[in-house]
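Batch job 17 of 40 flagged for manual review because the log was empty.
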Amino acid sequence: MSFIRPDARQALCRWREVAAAAGVTAFGLWLMLLGGFLLLPLGGVFAVLGLGFGLLAYRRMRFAQSGDAPGVVELEEGQISYFGPTFGGAVALRELVEIRLLTQQGRRMWRLRQQDSQTLLIPVEASGAERLFDAFAGLPGMDSGALVAALAPQAAGRGQAITLATDSRVIWKHPVRAVLT
């Protein structure tokens, strides 16, 4: 028996990492207020770490999309796998050369292309797709702020049946390999 409404619980779960980071930052500020040669710098370290973790947690929260896209995304040992009802596959993170955000028939999808031109389409709202943020953020030259901004509602073109050719934005290209292919 739960005393919290389901929608309130869902909102609390969504903001839990940001709240934890705010707690770490508040703890650091409290230590700084106590003063002294030891607590002042220690509190500063906690406050800075809390702010950095909070920024990352906020971006990760904005990256996660809720929806009803079919399929499951798995990320294991440097390999992204998507298992869907009609298509699927796997790509290796170390072989990626390009990430695009497509809108096809009103549904947004990640298009991951490997060095050998093999591609994988993953719906943005698929189950487990929020794990892709950490995988994408670790790629060389990736700007996580731009990654989150690409998923903003005004950039999505919601409600329109857009063909593949008209709404295809490059989010990331490998700095070295993309030149060679």
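Reviewer: the log was empty due to a logging misconfiguration, but the result itself is present. The radius of gyration is 20 Å. Unflagging and moving on to job 18.
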